[in-house]
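If it is no trouble, can you show me the amino acids of a protein and the tokens describing how it folds?
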Amino acid sequence: MTTLITVLVVLVFAALLYVFYRMQKRHAKFSTRVYTALAAGIVFGGALQLIFGVENEVITQSMDWISIVGNGYVSFLQMLIMPLVFVSIVAAFTKMKVSEKLGKISATVLTTLLATTAISALIGIGVTIAFGLQGAEFTQGAAETARISELATRQETVEGLSIPQQILSFIPKNIFADLAGTRATSTIAVVIFAAFVGVAYLGIKRKAPKEASFFADMIDSLYRIVMRIVTLVLRLTPYGVFALMTNVMATSDFDAILNLGKFVLASYLALFAVMIVHFLILIGVKVSPIDYLKKTFPVLSFAFTSRSSAGALPLNIETQTKALGVDEATANFAASFGLSIGQNGCAGVYPAMLATIVAPAAGMDVFSIQFILLLVAIVTISSFGVAGVGGGATFASLIVLGSMNLPVAIVGLVISVEPLIDMARTAVNVSGSMVAGIVTSARINDLDRDVIKDEAKVVDVNA
């Protein structure tokens, strides 16, 4: 009987996928299909949980099949990450009309990412105190106990690493290994190597323009091929979003969410406050937050459902260049750097909140200026090299808590609500990188403001 019901659930899921296919054939707008998929996933997944419950075998078996679509889509995007990061950074150098802008672009992108991360940490501290969560204790069940045990092992990989040693780990020793993603810091290592290749290109361009021109043409061709693959994969976005949101809604433990409701509410309020900061920054460079939200909703909704900043990278770059008017060089820098540096949600808000919650148990005064400044500084520095895939927030939290000699068990105690919070964290991460791109492009006077205002300028994956 269970097998029969599972088959029926999967058939309904397949029928809904066919609806999205028909919408595409009728040339429905990409954003419309993404919105519809998001809403359908919430309704369908929520209905499955209400009917069967989280622990039901029907849910387990159905999600195995449904995950082929959702996780398969994320895997396709992750397949593109390393080649896209490498080609994007090198292309940023070859596409740069004036090489003198290189320093201004990289400095502005990094400054914006790190400054917003520092502000995010302050917001995380403030919201935690405002909700009275400092010193709070959470229930420890079987899942939490297992998670804490796992974290103890993982803590050993970062325990004892000083800040200089962490920085040293960013430097690529074997670029082929890093292109294969064998380390937690592989992405930033590829960024560094690509930057070296780009700088070398600029040097050759002055001394041997013919060879430099050939290299630029080769990179341009490779970039176009990779971006074409990106377009093909992005056509699957509505299907992926629908499957991912269905999975989240069907498998979330609503009872646990209610038990940790105060922490979840505080987390979402803090992340919403960070988005407000993003809007204020946009207003500062004369960009309408409303226009920004309209143009970025597809990529933010994907980041929200997939919980992968890395998976959202292709859509991030496409959105910046085609919908927000950011120049290609800056968009490539901002999206790629934002993947591993200064993630506002995972590396900013979350570690700061957890540290503030457990600090009183370690005898620290969370109201002292010394504690606040130290925590903000450690969070900002530790935001380098945070992987843009699932688990990045855990890695960042372990580093921050370990650096301040605070217990790491808190990371395991909130495991039941981790997926729910991680969705919003990831969306904030991606938004932070796009804001850095807009700010930087505006600073070098390469921001095409007409594109932002033009409602027809959206990410088009049907071309």
Notes: Residues 57-95 form the longest helix (39 residues). Residues 100 and 161 are 36 Å apart (CA to CA).
